[in-house]
C-alpha cells in the first residue's frame, strides 16, 4: 500500500467535514440488521427483570403489540425465549416437546399478527429443565450428548411445525445441527433456516438472561463441559466448520463485544452470514453505567453495535434493538 507522506497526505482531510465522513464510512448500521430477543411469560411470571432494566417478560397480548412496534421500526426478526413456571420443569425438560406449549403458542400468535416478521426460536432444554442445563443429565450429572440431541430433534420439529422460520440451536451438543437438518428435510421443511450458535462460550455474561428465564437459581454447576472455553479461538473455527457441513445457514458468535476477534476470524475464514449476540450481561453493563450517568447511552450503544458490524457481523441479536432502531430513525 502506497500511503504517500505528509503534507501531501493528511488523513484528517477525510475527517474534516460531515459530508466526507459520511462518504468514506466503511460500515453502517440499520434496523433491518437487528434482531430483538423477547421473553415470553404468562400470568404472574410476566413483568420486569431485575438485572435487565427496561426489558419486560411479555404475555402473549403484550408480545403481539411489541412485535408490531418493532416491525414498524424496521426490525426484521425477533427471537423468542420462554419463561416456564417451575411446576412445568423436570429433569428431562419434557415441556420443550409440548406442541401446545408457550413457545408454539407464541410463534402462532406472532405469525397471525405479522406473517412477514421473521420468527427465531432457541433449540435447547435449559428453560425447561429443573437443573437448568441445556440437556439431559446422565447418572454422574454429565450432560449426555446423544440422548439430548434426540430431544432437541423433537423440539425442533415441534417448533418448525408451529411456524418458526429459524431454529437456533443454542445448546452446544455435538451433531445437533445435522440431526435437526435431517428431521426438517424429512418433514419437507426445506426452507426452515438453522441459525447455529456454533461458537458459544461458557461466559459469565449470561447471568441476567438466566435471571430472566428463571434458570439461574436452579442451575447446578456451570456449562463448561459443553460451552466453549473463553481462552480458545481455533476451536471456534472447528465448531463453525462442523455446523456448516451439517447444514447451518447462519453462524452465531456469542457473546458479542468481548469476542470481536472470533467474529472476524469466522467471517474471514468462511464468508457465510454471521450473527453476533450482544448478550444480557453486555446489556446490563451498559445499562448500569448509563443509569449512573457515567456513559452516554445513545453513543455507547450505537458504537457497540457498529463495532460488532465492523468486526464482521451481518446481523446482531441485541436487547437494545428497539431503542437502537428508534435512534437510527432520528
Ligand atoms: C440457553 C441460552 C442462553 C442464552 C441464550 N440461550 C443462556 C445460557 O446458555 O446459559 C444467553 C443469552 C443472554 O445472556 O442474553 N441455551
Notes on the protein architecture:
With 330 residues, the chain is an alpha/beta fold. The protein has one domain: Aldolase class I (TIM Barrel, Alpha-Beta Barrel), CATH 3.20.20. It has 11 helices and 10 strands. It has helices at 18-24, 60-72, 102-113, 145-162, 176-186, 207-213, 234-246, 260-270, 280-291, 297-311, 321-329, and strands at residues 34-40, 47-48, 56-58, 77-82, 118-123, 166-169, 193-200, 250-254, 274-278, 315-318. The chain has an 8-stranded parallel beta barrel with strand order 1-4-5-6-7-8-9-10, surrounded by 9 helices. Strand 6 (166-169), helix 5 and strand 7 (193-200) form a beta-alpha-beta unit. The chain is globular, with a radius of gyration of 20 Å. The chain starts with 17 loop residues before the first helix and ends with a helix. The site of ligand PBG has 12 residues, from helix 6.
Summary, kept brief:
Helix content is 39%, strand content 15%. By secondary structure, the chain is an alpha/beta fold.
Topology:
Elements: H1 18-24, E1 34-40, E2 47-48, E3 56-58, H2 60-72, E4 77-82, H3 102-113, E5 118-123, H4 145-162, E6 166-169, H5 176-186, E7 193-200, H6 207-213, H7 234-246, E8 250-254, H8 260-270, E9 274-278, H9 280-291, H10 297-311, E10 315-318, H11 321-329
Parallel strand pairs: 1-3, 1-4, 1-10, 4-5, 5-6, 6-7, 7-8, 8-9, 9-10
Antiparallel strand pairs: 2-3
Helix pairs in contact: 2-3, 4-5, 7-8
Bound molecules: ligand PBG.
Please describe the biggest sheet, giving its number of strands, its sense, and whether it closes into a barrel. 8 strands, parallel, barrel
| Number of continuous helical runs | 11
Q: Quote the average pLDDT.
A: 97
CA-based shape: globular
Bound molecules: ligand PBG
CATH class: Alpha Beta
**Strand order in the sheet with the most strands:** 1-4-5-6-7-8-9-10
* Share in β-strands: 15-25%
The class by helix and strand makeup works out as: alpha/beta
The helix/strand order is HEEEHEHEHEHEHHEHEHHEH
Distance between the termini: 38 Å
What quaternary form is this? Answer: single chain
Gyration radius (Cα, Å) is: 20 Å
Give me the count of strands.
10
CATH architecture: Alpha-Beta Barrel
Relevant CATH superfamily: Aldolase class I
CATH topology-level name: TIM Barrel
Please give the share of residues in helix.
Answer: 25-40%
What low-confidence regions span 5 or more consecutive residues with pLDDT below 50? Answer: none
Amino acid at each position: 500500500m502506497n500511503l504517500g507522506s505528509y503534507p501531501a497526505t493528511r488523513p484528517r482531510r477525510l475527517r474534516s467535514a460531515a459530508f466526507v465522513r459520511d462518504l468514506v464510512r466503511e460500515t453502517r448500521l440499520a434496523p433491518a440488521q437487528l434482531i430483538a430477543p423477547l421473553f415470553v411469560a404468562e400470568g404472574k411470571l410476566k413483568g420486569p427483570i431485575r438485572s435487565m432494566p427496561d426489558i419486560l417478560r411479555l404475555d402473549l397480548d403484550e408480545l403481539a403489540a411489541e412485535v408490531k412496534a418493532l416491525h414498524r421500526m424496521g426490525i426484521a426478526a425477533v427471537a423468542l425465549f420462554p419463561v416456564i413456571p417451575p411446576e412445568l420443569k423436570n429433569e428431562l425438560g419434557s415441556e420443550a416437546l409440548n406442541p401446545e406449549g408457550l413457545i408454539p403458542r407464541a410463534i402462532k400468535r406472532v405469525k397471525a399478527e405479522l406473517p412477514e416478521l421473521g420468527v427465531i426460536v432457541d433449540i435447547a432444554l435449559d428453560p425447561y429443565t429443573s437443573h437448568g442445563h441445556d440437556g439431559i443429565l446422565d447418572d454422574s450429572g454429565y450432560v449426555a450428548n446423544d440422548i439430548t440431541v434426540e430431544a432437541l430433534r423433537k423440539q425442533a420439529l415441534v417448533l418448525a411445525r408451529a411456524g418458526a422460520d429459524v431454529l437456533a440451536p443454542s445448546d452446544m451438543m455435538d451433531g445437533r445441527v445435522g440431526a435437526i437438518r435431517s428431521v426438517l428435510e424429512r418433514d419437507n421443511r426445506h426452507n426452515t433456516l438453522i441459525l447455529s450458535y456454533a461458537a458459544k462460550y461458557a461466559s459469565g455474561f449470561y447471568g441476567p438472561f438466566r435471571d430472566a428465564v428463571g434458570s439461574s437459581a436452579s442451575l447446578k454447576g456451570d456449562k463448561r463441559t459443553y460451552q466453549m472455553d473463553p481462552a480458545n479461538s481455533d476451536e471456534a473455527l472447528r465448531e463453525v466448520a462442523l455446523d456448516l457441513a451439517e447444514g447451518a445457514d447462519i453462524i452465531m458468535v456469542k457473546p458479542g463485544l468481548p469476542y470481536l476477534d472470533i467474529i472476524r476470524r469466522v467471517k474471514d475464514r468462511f464468508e457465510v452470514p454471521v450473527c453476533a449476540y450482544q448478550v444480557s450481561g453486555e446489556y446490563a453493563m451498559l445499562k448500569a453505567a448509563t443509569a449512573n450517568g457515567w456513559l452516554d447511552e445513545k453513543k455507547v450503544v450505537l458504537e457497540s453495535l457498529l463495532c460488532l458490524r465492523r468486526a464482521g457481523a451481518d446481523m446482531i441479536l441485541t436487547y437494545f434493538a428497539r431503542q437502537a432502531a428508534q435512534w437510527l430513525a432520528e
